[in-house]
Amino acid sequence: MAQVTPDVLANFFDDLENDSSDLETYAAGHPKMADDLGSLVEVAQSIAPPPDVSLDSVTRARMRAGLLYQMAQTRRPAAKERKLSIRESLQRLVGIVASVERIPAMVVAAVIVLATSFGGGVVFAAEGALPGDALYPVKLSYENVQLVLAPNDDAKAAALVHLAYNRLTDLDKASLTGRVEAVNVAASSYATDVSEASQILSKPTASDQTVTVLADRLEMDLARHESTIVDVETQQPRSVATMALQRADADVESALALAVARDQNLSQLLAATSTSVGQPAARTMLTAASVAPRAVVTVALPTPGSATVAQTGQPTTVAAGAPVNGGTSAPVAATAARPGGTSGSAGNPKAPPPSGSGGRAHDNDRHRPAVSYWVFHRKWVLAVPPRPARPVTKPQPVSNAHGGAAAQPASSTANQHSASVAATPNK
Amino acid sequence: LDKPKTAPGPATIADDEIAYVEAAIQGDARAFAALYDRHAERVFRHVMYRVANQSDAEDLTQQVFLQAWRAIDRYQRTGAPFVAWLLTIAYHIVVSHTRRNKPTSTLELEPATNERWSDPEGETMSRFERQAVREAILHLKPDQQQVIIMRFVEHFDHADVAAALGKSEGYVRVIQHRALNELRRMLVHEVKY
């Protein structure tokens, strides 16, 4: 039996829909393909239309009213309006100043360049630049410093994820201002950053925590820019940007699949560690980001030399295994942490309240990672806290409000872990 | 197998619909509301086919139209029927939704009988079998799923599907062929998901 070709199949469907042929006639013209054709047509026939469901009048009216309200709140992008590039803006500025003050344009330009070159002026000016703008390379160079300074793969992956977020922001702006070429460049750069990050995350050397946190972060960033991405994919389906976004989407999926596997590893590790300090099996909070969209959960490793990545300006530790709403219970770190730690983190008032029965409670000052990379106002800062010598203490069981026993942290326990939740900065 | 009993032909844009679209592009919310009135039901049914959850389908339908309102000034570039364009947006939004929300309890959908083809056996096709076909479609690769749904669930012709997806007609033909082969494989072997 010969296989029917895509064209023969499509032509048959066309003829069938135009009522100009039937299967018998068509099969007679393609005897070798008849069986295969009949079989595929049978499959097509088995596909039923959508379910016979409808919106009742009340629901329909409610949805209509809701849509009109949202439309009124939605800013329609001004597609025709093009933002001036930095170069055009500077040329315009030079022209205006030179014409008003009767000063040679070259002199004015030199003064402007000098004035903006010092004190980080150029970097500041480049912050809002988009692909195609004169200062865009300056912006990229400045951002890439964070990547160059990353001391290991975990930090490099974190920096790449951060850069990927910046490119999504560029994509947003470029899409809103209708700059198609900038959209393509931003999307391609985003895909490249995501690809490199996911490659690092796929290495066996990447820690479970890094994979889980960063994969979650990539997914959250995609979700936040969903409308722009859908917009680009819908409006420019064959563009460079769409293909790049689809590649990036696949990479994020891969990273998430890795994270699921690593999450299981980490759950087992946390459970084992919790048991070892006399606490009920701790529940990893690594999926809390899906519960609280503005939160990123990180696990800090106090093990010397390890790196922890957090996305926050105000890190807040969270105890795994402690009650969610146990306001009267003493907050207890998930596992061993340093009592009286030197962490200066205050509780984050903007952090979303825990939901569900995840067993979380805030614990502000009980833990301080050995080395961590924090993001303060979108900048990566390497923080190496002092390592005070502390006596070894045995874990003290503490009852929580739900009657479960939790352990007070022990400073010297090996493989100390603590889950920390930090609210992401408002973008 | 006989020829189709009721072949509706390619979807076309009614004249007044073009006027509504033009007005909506200029920012006329009432014109867009008229487009909503015309196509909300179809978009809702399409989304229901994919998510099988009434509440989600209502929310996603709302999102489809809101997204369409934001992007309508670029609609004409595709040249596809307006409703095909809406369904393309619906596809992306549903994909995004299902990726972020694992399927929970869903309704046992009762697909309508297939009136497009004369299918005597279809009359006796059990609800279970129709459900199995739907399940199989939803487990196709995304591009195959989109083409199959646009072609055989929504009944757009090759040219309209190609225009809506921004692909060539050749692409649609090839994907259709692959998808039907894959569907056949899944149904014959009763693949479990």
Overall, the morphology of chain B is: globular
Distance between the termini of chain A: 60 Å
Class per helix and strand makeup of chain B = mainly alpha
Low-confidence stretches of chain A: 78-84, 274-427
- Enumerate the strands of the largest sheet of chain A in spatial order, edge to edge or round the barrel: 1-9-3-4
* H and E order of chain B: HHHHHHHHH
The value of Rg of chain B in angstroms is 17 Å
Q: Report the structural category of chain A.
A: alpha+beta
User: Helicity level of chain B, as a percent range?
Assistant: 55-70%
For the biggest sheet of chain B, the summary is:
none
Shape annotation of chain A: extended
Biggest interface in this structure?
A: A-B, 61 and 81 residues
Largest beta-sheet characterization of chain A: 4 strands, antiparallel
Task: Give the mean pLDDT of chain B.
Answer: 78
- Percent helix of chain A: 40-55%
Tell me the strand percentage band of chain B: under 5%
Task: Please characterize this protein's 3D structure.
The complex is a heterodimer of chains A (427) and B (193). Chain A is α+β, with helices and mostly antiparallel strands. In chain A, 49% of the residues lie in helices and 9% in strands. Chain A has helices spanning 6-17, 23-29, 34-45, 57-73, 86-101, 105-117, 121-126, 136-148, 153-176, 180-201, 208-224, 226-235, 240-276, 288-291, and strands at 295-300, 308-309, 316-320, 360-363, 372-376, 379-383, 397-399, 405-407, 418-423. The radius of gyration of chain A is 29 Å and the shape is extended. The relative contact order of chain A is 0.09. Chain B is mainly α and 193 residues long. Chain B has nine helices and no strands. Chain B is globular. Chains A and B meet through helix 1, helix 3, helix 4 and helix 12 of A and helix 2, helix 3, helix 4, helix 6 and helix 7 of B.
